[in-house]
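Lay summary

Proteins are chains of building blocks that fold into shapes. Our project writes down both the chain and a compact code for its shape. Here are two examples, one after the other.
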Amino acid sequence: MTIFFGVYCLDKTDCSFDAKIMLESLNYVSSDADALWNAEGIALGQKTVFNTPESFSETLPLYDPVNNLTIAGDIRLDNRAELFVKLSIDAKEYEERADAGIIILAYRKWGEALCEHLLGDFAFVLWDGGLNKLICCTDHLASRNLHYFYNGKKFVFATTPNPILALDDIC
């Protein structure tokens, strides 16, 4: 089971320490890859289990430096072929283009309406560094959980409650 988590500090303070605590709280979970990413006021982390052929070629959180977008998530898209056409992605990339990369392209095309075009089982967060905006999405049936805590200063989220509860200033 892939688990992702993160902290968005609205006052732009460094959130990387919180993300490290959240990752350490998940030491009991086995994964194929663990990663942390942070920028001013935001930190994302992920414990990934490779569950699709495309996922082996992807490291999450995934940062797109050209568009200043970062995504973390537990994603399985079922309408990849349809999205390749709608997003004008070369069919030669079908086997190697991972789902998170497709979602970044979908966001660039449709903005916050991107989820209207996605079919599958997914939960993800997408940080738009250019707009300082965090977008949180789940599939239409919410088959992937996304728990959160917000206190006016900090927005903390994860696909399981344990990393949220590991932070001292939550309870």
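And here is the second example, written the same way.
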Amino acid sequence: MIRTSTRRQRGFTLAELLIVISVLAIVSALLVPLAGNDGATGVRAAAELLAADIEDVQARSLAEPKNASCLVPYEDGSGWYIARMSDAATPIDGIDGQPLTRRFGSGVLSGSAKVTLTAPALSGGGLGFDDQGAPVASNSALTFLLGTDQGDLTLGVEVSAATGRVSISRP
């Protein structure tokens, strides 16, 4: 006579455990960056966007030297915009038809509400580039400082006077 086991097995299979562990790993990988320091994350995001916009202004100036662009920081440190050197008071429109303005706490910088910008002294009020890609009227490197009131993190976006190379560093 063959015995059949009526005893119930308890526990989980190896496959079930691996699936649960994988799901937990994926969820934690997504949530850990969100739990980080908001001020520092906002400063990093703002510095990367500022560096990209400076490089965009440089590329626009190289492409159209007779109609060169410039990056103009707001006097209150709340952001910046891109304009033509011939009319630095008026932001130019982007490909979406909207003015190329950046304000901390809104739009792509919505996570950077606590960030402020300290700009170097700029001739004509904005950062422009010559037909060789170097900053106009600058004999030394230009450093834009981004930080928060809480001092979470301060980053500098530096533009080389000789080459126009843009880099991000801690001052």
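What can we say about the second shape? Residues 92 and 160 are 25 Å apart (CA to CA).
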